[in-house]
Amino acid sequence: MSPRPRIGDDTALLPIRCPFPPRISPWAQEAGAQLDLWAARFGAVRERTARERFARAGFGTFAAVTYPTADLESLCLMADWFGWLFLVDDQLDDGRVGRDLTATRAAASTLLDVLDGPVRPVGAGETGAPLVLALRDLWYRTAPRAGAHWRDRFTRHLTACLDAACWEAANRVAGVIPGEAEYIEQRRHTGAILVCMDLIDIVTGAEIPDRIHAGLEFQATLRAASDVVVWTNDWYSLGKETALGEYHNLVTVVAAERGLGHRQALDHTAAAVNTEIERYGVLRERLLTAFPGHRTALTRCLAGMESWMRGNFDWSRATLRYTEREHGTPAYLETTLASWIPHTPRTPHTPHTPQAPHTPQRLHGVTGPRPNGR
After folding, report:
1. Which terminus of the chain is more exposed, N or C, with fewer CB under 10 A?
2. In total, how many domains does the chain have?
3. Is 357 a domain residue?
4. ω before 357 within 30° of 0 (cis)?
5. In whole angstroms, what is the distance from residue 32 CA to residue 287 CA?
6. Considering the chain, what percentage of its residues have pLDDT values greater than 90?
7. 364 lies in a domain?
């Protein structure tokens, strides 16, 4: 069963001023237990030691602090989404797939085929790639709860997430540390935070008209909340990623581009998180003022963003996901993604920073032409 990190403890490594109160669903343990069973059902985490480490990460608790108002069924769905997203992320970040651009593109394309295809359950005894079958199950449980516009938006965000994984893979193959501006833009996708923010609508039932959701006021507020989440994640996952030789982290990117030492880069990142929290507060009020007729739905959605910012902060400093790997304990990583992707040998590179001025380049990953026309 997944552990329950300490919530609301105000002692933290990251010196941020988080004004949002800690909240947690009463169904945290149930969601964690359901996630462990769900992952085992699809063979996403197979070996006993891997299952134990997966459980210790506390993804059920993570869902409980980021979606604290969810009912039990919805919270279990959120926890399962978290399990899937983290497993895919680890396969692409820590595994050999993420260091092979061809394999990353193939994996991303295969996963996105699920969202392109018919919404159908996974049959009893059906076999296939574990993370593909798991995604089919998630989509079958999620898609009927939303309208066509939400499904299109969610698909775009998941596509951008996997395309950004191709961007990271290309950087690893070339040994390039990205520039700060490019990294910040891509981080919202590599962190899948826009996907997770979309899921707020599934939990709360808030229906934000497309014209408002796509408008400048809402998007600016969403970006601010999203950046707080992923930059906080970068702070806490730095040790794990450094141990793995991973340099897609804001602290590392800031240090490389600005010529800062380790402590200076940490301080800069903490200050950036605090500034973004303050900016979110200003943008929040502007958004509510701009659309008074939709205040109820917007307030519900904004409360979800705030639960995400606070819940991510509390979970990140308590989970064993980052500290176990940082201190040398093997992760729950298995070849559940790599096993059905062909391997392309590569020549290792030493990371280097791009020559200034840095010019961001959009990679053609999985958003270009695909067999089904996406």
Report:
1. N
2. 1
3. no
4. yes
5. 35
6. 63
7. no
